[in-house]
Amino acid sequence: MFATVAASAAERRARRPGDDLVDPADVVMDRAVTFDTAPEAVWPWLVQLGKHRAGWYLPRRVERFLPAGRRATRQIQPRWQHLQAGDIIPDYGGRHEIFRVDRIHAPDSIVYTSRRGRTDLSWSITLEPESVTPARTRVHFRLRMAPVKHRWLATTAGEFFDALTIAGAAAGLTERLHDARPPTA
Fold first, then answer.
1. What is the pLDDT of residues 35-84, one digit of tens each?
2. What is the model's pTM?
3. DSSP letters of the chain?
4. Residue from 157, 142, 155 nearest 32 by CA
C-alpha cells in the first residue's frame, strides 16, 4: 500500500535547493521515491499540493475513511498550477501553520520555508529524471530544521511521522499518475 521512501546515502549527502536557508540544520530528514513517469508528468501534481489546494495525496484505501471534503483531488487543477515565490500555503501542522514558497524552478524544484515556534524549517522537493531510464522520475523530499530543542524526539517520532506521511503521499500520487495515463492499445 505504501511506497518505499528511503533515500540512499548519496542522496542524503547531495546538496539540494534550499539547503542554505536553514544552515546549519539540527535535524535533516531525507526521503526519495521513484515514479514510473517523466518529470513533466509528476511536476503538476507537486505544484498543487497543500491544504485548501489539491490536498495531500493518499491512496483510495486510506482516503475512503476521510470525509469527502478532506480528500485530495484526483485531477490536475489548472487554478493551482501558477505557484510562485512568495505564495503562502496553509499547512496541516496546525490551524495557523503555513508554508511560504521561497523558490520555485519549474519543473525541477520547489522550496518552502516556515517557522514553528522558535524553529525555522525548509522543505525542498526536487525532481530528477532517472539516469538509466529518463522516462522515470526520482523525487527527493528534504526537511531541514533548526534550532531543535528535543533532537531525540525529532529523530525518532518526527522521522517516523515524516516517513509515514511521505510514503502515504507517494502511494496516493502513484495511483493518480497511473489513473492519468492514457489507455494503451
1. 999 999 999 999 999 988 998 899 999 999 998 888 899 999 999 999 99
2. 0.92
3. -PPP-BPPHHHHHS--TTGGGS-S-SEEEEEEEEESS-HHHHHHHHHT-BTTTTB----HHHHTTS-GGGSPPSS--GGG----TT-EEE-TTSTT-EEEEEEEETTTEEEEEEEETTEEEEEEEEEEE-SS-TTSEEEEEEEEEES-S-HHHIIIIIHHHHHHHHHHHHHHHHHHHHHHSPPP-
4. 142
Edge-first strand listing for the sheet containing 137-146? 27-35, 137-146, 119-129, 109-116, 98-105, 88-90
Query: What cell was used for 55?
Result: 490536498
- Quick one: average pLDDT of 129-156? 93
pLDDT exceeds cutoff 80 at 94: no
